[in-house]
Amino acid sequence: MEILKWGKEFELGIPEIDQQHKKLVDILNSFYTELAGNVDRDEAIKHFFNDLEKYLILHLKFEEEFMQQMGFDNFENHKKVHDMFIKLYKEEKERYLSGDKKALNELVALSLSWLLNHIAKTDRKYAEFYKKLNNQT
Ligand SMILES: [Fe+2]
Ligand SMILES: [Fe+2]
Q1: 73 CA distance to ligand 1 centroid (A)?
Q2: Which residue, 2, 97, 107, 118, has most beta carbons within 10 Å?
Q3: Cα 124 to middle of ligand 1, angstroms
Q4: Distance between CA 45 and CA 53 in Å, rounded?
Q5: 14-136 CATH
């Protein structure tokens, strides 16, 4: 079962970044697939948190360095949006860990919708900046 298919509409034309975005979407999809099968639920959830956090932090850091290196003019705001999401994610995770089982579904739904929206709107802005920069030189 897949809750979301990766499509061209999410590609920014920067291969390394596109791969990282795709990986994040894969992690969310695999989690659903795992839970639908006959698995140890607690193990699946533990793996999910580990994987998602590892790649999310890695990706956001990579992106922030990438934006800084090219001198992206809206870097500070973009970083704030990343930080806000990490905060929200941690709050949802805490809610789940302290016994609110519903928070897990909310966390996955929230992560997916945030990710897709963020890629399509916010990330696209630095991608356009990057392309303009490359065309000038
Ligand atoms: Fe991104
Ligand atoms: Fe971003």
Answers
A1: 17
A2: 107
A3: 9
A4: 12
A5: 1.20.120.50
